[in-house]
Design a protein that fits this description.
- This protein is mainly beta.
- The protein has no helices and 37 strands.
- It starts with a strand and ends with a strand.
- The model is unreliable at 1-39 and 340-346 (pLDDT under 50).
Amino acid sequence: MFIFGSLISGNLSLTKMKNSVILYGLVLIASVLVSTNLLAQYHWTPKTNGLGLGIHRITTSMTALANGDIVICMDTYPGDPGSPDVFKSTDQGDNWVAMNAIGLNNLHAVFSLKSTNSGLVLLGRNLANESLIYKSVDNGLNWTLINNGIDVKDVMMDMVEISNTHWLVGGVDNNVNYKLYKSTNQGASWSELQISGNDNIGAAYSFDIIGNKLLITCFKRGSSSPYTYLFESTDNGLNWVEKFEFQKDLLQIPNIVLTDDHVLFALGYYKNPATQLREVLMYRSINFGDTWDTIPITGLEDRSYLSGLVISNNTLFVCGMSKQGGLVNTFVFSSALPPVGVSKKKNIVVKAYPNPFQNQVFIDAPYDSEVIITSITGQVLLYSKGTVIDTSVLPKGIYVLTVNGVSQKVIKN
């Protein structure tokens, strides 16, 4: 038995449950339950106990550790003494404890905090507007600068871990040209990556890896459009193409996250032209970012800026800043992913061959079928559409192949 997701095109539906799967040669037959609870409302509740509200803070970011703990880093306000504050929660945000971090004295503004297989990586800048990249191998207690090879005049905003030895950091130079730096030794040294298709990528707000896709949300350089755009790369950042237009003025999206059910979530904020007030929008994609829809939320009213979105133990967490009584305060809110209703059954038959495979898998299904290949632990490694799937990037091993919600173990020789 496996845990399977059912993604039904056009209905924003998601079901997670056990399905009976029988493999006859190369034919997968499944009985799939289809959800009709399409627009369950997401309610956000504050999680700020112990964060020291009332302190001037401008930028902040957060990340989830492999064990489910959450770490948040907040910058130092101009004139405040000391280094940025780092807090950790071991109970899903109910309580936060200061970590007394060492090594961040020069850091002034916090841009991004990411968890990797070898530790935490923190991006920001100092008071001289120079980019700084720090690494911690003890979950945030001690930090070491890993800037070797980075032009400090470039503003490095975010990073992704493609593999244990392949990292990318992204940002812009003084002319707002988007740039990527690559490290093959876990940040010990960096070199600029020569990329194409980045001419239209302006000020970027998020840089995330979803399976075999790199995703950037940004303003479109050289365009009069006030909208935010999603750009995608499927070759580790070498080439970029425009994928989607979020049709809201000056929308800023700090992060995109992926659930265990292969659904993407994003939170964004924008200034409503009618009221001149900032409003928060929540987006969901069931096709790995090809299209997005808004979903209803409550609890995030009057939140000025969002700066981080993470997922831990089936719960979404967002952090940011809001003005209250003349002070800029950090906030953290959480929202549990709601259960989804169930309706009718339908049968799906899919052929996937050969098994074992080498550099290609052939799918006997509709041409636009969604194909997802994950590790045994559920990490998305490859997402594609079509009937011929290029698997050359995968090393030899055992994987789970999912086609239109139907899954089976496959082996690469």
